[in-house]
Amino acid sequence: MHIELTNHCLYIEPILDAKYASRAVFTDRIAYSTKSSTKWIDDTLKRYYATNIEARKYHAKFHFNFHRLTPILFTTHNGFLLFPLPNKQFKLNNYWINLSKCYAFKESDVGVTIEFTNGTFFDVPVPLTVFEKQYTRALFLNDQYGKFIIARDNRNLMNDSGKIVYNMSNSNE
Which single residue of 67, 79, 83, 147 could bond 138 by disulfide (Cβ 3.0 to 4.6 Å)? Predict the structure, then answer.
């Protein structure tokens, strides 16, 4: 059975269990999966968004020059964007944090303590500098996609004749 990852997901973490490889903590429940966190995200993208994780990574690499640990945007409608945090213990099974649910973070003895919008806390064993870099990249990607959506919607509303007009001129000229 496939469990859909939605905007209510706070984070996905790798776990050491004989039956499961990862778990997703939602605002109201916890879901377990036999797949790695990255595979779980890939399957959700394929099933519900008609794309895959490699296509999202390629787009971010091509347009924004992100080469490793690329944040993955699911949809711009509700701001569902997960950003990865590297995990040395599980090479291909990263932590994934939902940007829209991340309220605050601070350095702790474990690494970084994240506070979510519902008041829960989560400790991630990564250095603060790594977390800040990934958080900044996720904010940048979310901002750029938001600007694209606004520009697209404004472009569609500009034409009064009922036809969509596309401006093909180079704006740098």
Answer: 83
**What is d(CA 1, CA 115) in angstroms, rounded to the nearest whole number?**
30
pLDDT 10s digits, 120-160? 999 999 999 999 999 999 898 888 877 766 666 666 555 55
Q: What is the 3-state secondary structure (H, E, C) of the chain?
A: CCCCCCCCEEEEEECCCCCCCEEEEECCCEEEECCCHHHHHHHHHHHHHCCCHHHHHHHHHHHHCCCCCCCEEEECCCCEEEEEECCCCCCCCCEEEEHHHEEEEEECCCCEEEEECCCCEEEECCCHHHHHHHHHHHHHHHHHHHHHHHHHHHHHHCCCCCCCCCCCCCCCC
Find all residues with CB under 8 Å of 125, minimum gap 6, and list them.
Answer: 87, 110, 111
Q: pTM (2 decimals)?
A: 0.80
Alpha carbon 77 to its chain centroid, in Å, reads 13
Neighbours of 163 (CB within 10 A): 6
